[in-house]
Amino acid sequence: NQTNYAIIEKIMQECANQQCIVYFNPGAPNIIGKEFKTLIKSFVDVLILNHDEAKAMANTSSEQEIAQTLNQLTDLVVVTTGMNGCLLLNNRSTMHIRPDRRITAYDTTGAGDAFAAGFIHGILKNKTPYESCEYGNNVAHQLICERGRAFRCIY
Fold it and tell me: Measured on CA atoms in the order 80, 51, 65, 32, is the torsion positive or negative?
């Protein structure tokens, strides 16, 4: 709603004023509208989406059109694709980064958040975007690979 949008915009403006790097994950495809594209283009440095959010933002399910649309918004975009890893859109190029192993997913709750945390951790540790995607994949996969698993640090 407009109140949430105004709050997000105010926070992003303050981050820009403080010269912070802004990582943004909208969190739900149903909140993505034209105003969010403007907000992202104005303030976001790194956009992290799941595939449904990416389709909603690009208004298409074509991966090529999704990449074209998202590349116009910011220089670094990551789209998670579930068990298939993620897409890295970096400086107008697109790479599919697959997980290094196949696992059985027992509970995917929190996998996207775990991926984002791992990805951001990698970036903050001066890893490349590619290496950070690999790390994000590994963090998410460790989280979902067992029923009732307690998360353990792997870095």
Answer: negative
Residue 153 in this model has a pLDDT that exceeds 60: no
Cα–Cα distance between 54 and 48 in angstroms, integer?
A: 9
Distance CA 50, CA 67 (A): 13
Q: What is the Cα Rg of the chain in Å?
A: 15
Exposed/middle/buried for residue 113 (C-beta within 10 Å: 0-12, 13-18, 19+): middle
At 101, list the tokens: 């192993």
* One-letter identity of residue 109: T
- For the segment 126-148, what is each residue's pLDDT rounded down to a tens digit? 999 999 999 999 888 888 776 65
Pairing of strands 23-24, 46-50: parallel
How many helices (H) and strands (E) the chain has is answered by 6, 5
- Greatest C-alpha distance within the chain: 44
